[in-house]
Amino acid sequence: MGKILSIDIGQLFLKVAYLETTETGLKLLNYDLKISSPSERNDLAITGFITNFVKSNSISAPQVFLTISDDVFVKQLSLPVLSKKEIVEALKWQVKEELAFEFAQATYEWHVVKEFTDTDGAKKQEVIFIAASDKIVEKYILLFRKCGLTLSGISSAFLNYANILKLSNITTPAQVILDIGHKDSSLAYYEDKQLKFTRRLAFSSEKLIHSLTGTLISDKAGRLQLSYEEARDLKDVYGIPEDEDMILKDNIKAVHVISMMRPLLEGLSRELKYSLDYFISTFKIENISSLYLSGEGSDIKNLASFLEKELKVSISKLPFPDSLDLGGIEKDKLERDRSLIISPLGAALSAKEGAAFVPVQLKMQKIELVEKVSLRLIVITVALSFLLALSFVRYQIRIYNQKIDIARKYLISMSEVSSLAMKVAPYDYARLSIQKGKVPVDDLLKTLSALSPGEVKFDELALDQENHSLVLKGMINARKAHSQRSLEGFINKLKSSAFFESVQTVSFRQDDLSSEFELKCELTH
């Protein structure tokens, strides 16, 4: 089964989940979270957290998916049915005003979600466009290389939630997700579990904390100015007080806390009402009956009940998909961390859904990896070939030494010493030449000249001294019936010569008056 490492670099948390693919879906093996504010965060903190998790879980060669929602631009667009080149130009003009970076300095990708016919009969297609700054992409590719990891894709929370919805048992035709972050929030509208619309909202858990750092009234201490840490603790413990008559820590009255939170909460409620009405009007749906909460700041106590009263819709946390095997991880811990861990779980589903953003840099990285592996195989193959050739040369030298010894003994026993000496000389000369690592070029050319028929004309002779091979290219000025016999006779003569071990026909092309040929000859070793 394939292993998947999903890493989410959020506004306040570093989140990492380790999963494996199964026949039915995915299984969560382990996960970890780390609070890491922007002031504390640096490359060393990120790589240290990831490296420790990889080592402690003995993870080897996983697919790695990264979620960086703040730096990834995602938008669903409707376009006419166009060619690929025309789509890119259309996307460029539609999103250039919304991108926080120059289009020329962006790495982007797009997927056609579906094709449809509008009310006017025009054929159109829905396209999801994803882009990120080149600098951001290159930064994270290098960062993960330091951890010994190769990125398989980059995602955003919007796409992650779409993957979660596709595997959930939610049956409503429209889904709305409020992702509350540490610095800001996002509202996403999905139709049939496909992303249609996103917008940023000013509300966040950080801003809720800052709203409490003003002056509070306490029966015990009178006028009270809370520090950031005190306001954060108050928010974490009480959230949005439901009872205005409650007495909170240090005799602070809940009514005073609510009054300080009210402008921010009313602004959130007003923006959500406007957005829901916009979705109903724009996307022609009857109503929106539910809204799902997720994100790092979505666990504010009593926020769900406050929004239910204001919006008159059901508010709940985004559920885990039924097909996700949560393994043996403690259920209470999972439920407590659900809003934090669900985004990286959705990113891991990209391995099956194919919804991840795969920048050009990642594609090139994979190509480079393939090239490196291929180069290693080529080097190994060449090395083995060289060793085999060297062994063969040594074997051939030994054979020739034996032949020469036999010939010399024969010379002694025969009366025609001079004739036998002439026969032995080419072998002796060939042996000495091979031992010196060189083929006698002059003698080789003389031999070719003597053996080639008159109708054979050479166009090219390529001698490879190191590999002891010769490539002959030329023409035979003869008709079809005779050229084949002429070439075969020439090859037989070459094979019978002391210089040639083997002769192979690489190509032979005939026409009525002439023929072209290419031969590869292995020279005697």
Question: How would you describe the overall organization of this protein?
Answer:
This protein is an alpha/beta fold and 525 residues long. Helix content is 43%, strand content 28%. The protein contains 15 helices and 20 strands. It has helices at residues 43-56, 84-95, 134-146, 157-166, 205-211, 228-238, 254-282, 303-311, 331-336, 338-348, 350-353, 360-413, 417-435, 441-451, 480-496, and strands spanning 3-9, 13-21, 26-35, 63-67, 72-80, 106-117, 123-133, 151-155, 174-180, 185-191, 194-201, 215-218, 222-225, 290-294, 314-317, 324-325, 456-464, 469-476, 500-510, 515-523. It has a six-stranded mixed sheet, with helices on both faces. Strands 11-10-9-14-15 form a five-stranded mixed sheet, sandwiched between helices. Strand 12 (215-218) and strand 13 form a beta hairpin. The longest helix is centred in the last third of the chain and has 54 residues, at 360-413. The radius of gyration is 39 Å and the shape is elongated. The mean pLDDT is 82.
